[in-house]
Amino acid sequence: MKISPLPFQIPLLYTTQAANIFLKTIYQFHEPVHIENIHTRENGQLLLSTFANGTLFTIDPTAPNASATPIITLSHEPGYALTASPRSATTNTPSAAASTPRPPSASKTTP
Question: Which InterPro entries does the record associate with it (predicted)?
Answer without folding.
Answer: 6-blade_b-propeller_TolB-like
